[in-house]
Amino acid sequence: QVQLVESGGGLVQAGDSLRLSCTASGRSISDWAMGWFRQAPGKEREFVGAINWMGHSSYYADSVKGRFTISRDNAKNQLFLQMNSLKPEDTAVYYCAAGSSFQSYEFWGQGTQVTVSS
Fold this sequence. Notes:
Largest sheet: 7 strands, mixed
Distance between the termini: 40 Å
Order of helices and strands: EEEEEEEEEEE
Structural class: mainly beta
Shape: globular
């Protein structure tokens, strides 16, 4: 089992930056692919980005490419999402997840709210 806790969300203005963190416990995240997802009010959860177990490979949704960056620190059991040039449409609850592959995530955090005002 892996327990995931997100932090770093908040209320910001358009154009601002935020850095989300996801801290894992229970097991090392070094064996897992890690991802970020988000869910806006009234919408389905959507993929934001993912990073492989060593941190050498990552990919992103088109909507965030060039603005968001995922990184990980396996020694500290943490995952990060650096979000720059935030837009109101980035407003959502952001979730981190751990999985056996980029396509399969077994463990999820409870989410952190990000609100971007215009």
